[in-house]
Design goal:
2 copies of one chain form a homodimer.
Chain A lengths: L1 H36 L2 H32 L3 H35 L10 H21 L2 H31 L4 H44 L2
Chain lengths: ~220, ~220
């Protein structure tokens, strides 16, 4: 029963990409928390988490590659595996971006703490919600949910532009806060990039589902 | 002779990824040139180029997908096609980053022109060279050349950190130059991201070639 075995492997691949996504989401939340609390231990945790993400990415890539090589899957399964390979790369980069946030957060521990005009908690939660929603779309095979992630991207772009404008104004009013403001500017940019990766994941879900739609349309046509 | 046809298709895929890489490299060079010359027409060109890159990416992805679906390639060819799919995504994002540079360059046309302590020409050339070298590694199937790209990444990280430090100092000395300095800061970051994508491409080349090495090792073992 090689096909049943193959379906089990596909299910395992799905579990693995979900575990990878959980690590990535954890990374984003911990990195923002590390910034908000100026918590050095959390910064170190994000760094360790990033190593775990890299290992998980390699394992997942190898498993996807083995499946492609040995099972020679057709149409919809092939699209799913390709989507997983692409998502995997985006999740790994979410880990990278989170580590950048954590490194900046750690740098800021040595600086005087000042009020900055950026709501990083809201940005972090929003980016995190985009990742979660993209994964929900994958789980449910729901193109509409995936589309909603793509629409969410505009809001975080707006937040990022607002943060840039506010920080620019702050620097001009209080040049002595420039070091903190520049870090904040780049953290805002990291969070916007994380949202971009979530958007890429949603696009991959749509690519996979469109394959399903095409197959469905063909099977209807042949009725 | 379906296998000969398949080899032709693989060669076509290679041509297409090289054309895609040429577009991406053109985007980087034009974006930096647009910034250096404050040239609005070049900014518009980068935007059009980005549309062309997106179209090329979709076509290449579909071609790779068709090859995987219809030909069910084995080992080394499979690895090559997967590497092309990943490179394709990185080249598309180089196009995105170049467009960000061009948009910032256009925004700066309206601002007073000032001397900024960043050598964008050198950074752009360096990033461009990394893309070119990664592609050379693909053409020659040369893991050592691909490794050299990964080593080059440290230098552009250094350039980016230096640019950040210099711009920070500038803002503190001359707060009135903050708008231009922030744009420069983010352009520097865009170029550093472009170099990251070139590094990813080099890593994909190594993934592909390692497959070849494994196959080679196996064929030696079976002698």
């Amino acid at each position: 029963m090689p096909r049943i075995h193959f379906q089990q492997q596909l299910a395992e691949l799905k579990d693995k990409i979900l575990a990878m996504a959980a690590l990535a989401q954890q990374a984003v939340q911990s990195a923002v928390e590390a910034y908000l609390q100026r918590d050095e231990a959390l910064c170190a945790y994000v760094k360790e988490n990033e190593t775990a993400i890299n290992t998980a990415q390699r394992e997942l890539d190898e498993m996807a590659y083995e499946l492609l090589a040995k099972e020679q899957p057709m149409a919809i399964d092939l699209r799913f595996i390709l989507a997983v390979i692409k998502m995997n790369a985006d999740l790994e980069r979410i880990g990278d971006q989170s580590m950048s946030v954590a490194i900046r957060a750690r740098d800021m521990i040595g600086m005087p703490e000042v009020e900055l005009p950026v709501d990083f908690e809201a940005m972090g939660e929003y980016a995190s919600r985009m990742i979660r929603t993209a994964l929900q779309a994958l789980l449910d095979g729901d193109a509409q949910v995936a589309e909603s992630v793509r629409e969410m991207d505009d809001e975080i772009d707006r937040m990022n532009r607002l943060a840039q404008a506010e920080l620019l104004a702050l620097i001009q009013q209080k040049p002595e806060l420039t070091p903190q403001a520049l870090h904040a500017l780049l953290i805002s940019r990291n969070l916007e990039r994380i949202a971009d990766h979530a958007t890429n994941i949603a696009t991959d879900v749509i690519f996979w589902i469109r394959g399903a739609d095409v197959r469905h349309a063909l099977s209807l046509a042949s009725d």
